[in-house]
Amino acid sequence: MPSSLIARYVRILRKAGLKPAYMDVATNAYLKMMKRMKKDISQEQAVCIMDYGHAALTISVFDNGIPFVTREVAMDWEVDNFDTVATVLSQVLDYYYSRNYTSHIQRVWVSGGNGYINDFCQYVSMQTGVQVEVVRPDMFDIINKAPEDVPMGIYFKAIGAAIREELAI
After folding, report:
1. pLDDT tens track of the chain, all 169 residues?
2. 128 closest CA partner among 98, 102, 94, 78
């Protein structure tokens, strides 16, 4: 993330009367959440997280817990145009497979509010041939006192960003 963009965010927060304590990038937030997936879910060597948010579609592939590729596309299409989402996802998966011959992505985990649109996961799954599911609270080893019906996908990035980890230096 360019330092000029970070400086812009800090200025905006300060104008709002807030004092930022830390900032995080989306890929790191996804990685921290991935580390907290229950073992029976996280056994896959390659994991794909698709954040279908309000302003952008972000697709990140992690290979053995390491960020492999991330693609972010500004939303210049109608939110219910699932064909565009399926096309972008297919492009990212094709790129991954062209550079990795041993791993296969079994599932795409969806976060972001637009992932809850009716039939979204089913449609994208049919178009790409990969199982597509919205993230759920029961998938993670995180103490969670929220009701089971809370749409975790909406808060996925925020929860990941809030998790602090000690750096091993």
Report:
1. 567 777 887 888 889 988 877 777 777 777 777 777 766 665 567 889 999 988 899 999 988 878 889 999 999 999 889 999 999 999 999 999 999 878 888 889 998 889 989 999 999 999 999 999 988 777 777 666 666 666 767 767 666 777 776 655 4
2. 94
Distances (CA, A) of 36 to 41, 43, 55, 81, 131: 10, 12, 27, 32, 21
Instruction: Provide the β-strand partners of residue 52.
Output: 57
Which domains are seen in the chain, by residue range?
A: 25-162 (3.30.420.40)
Q: Can you spell out the DSSP letters for 8-74? A: HHHHHHHHTT--------HHHHHHHHHHTB-TTTTT-SEEEEEEE-SSEEEEEEEETTEEEEEEEEE
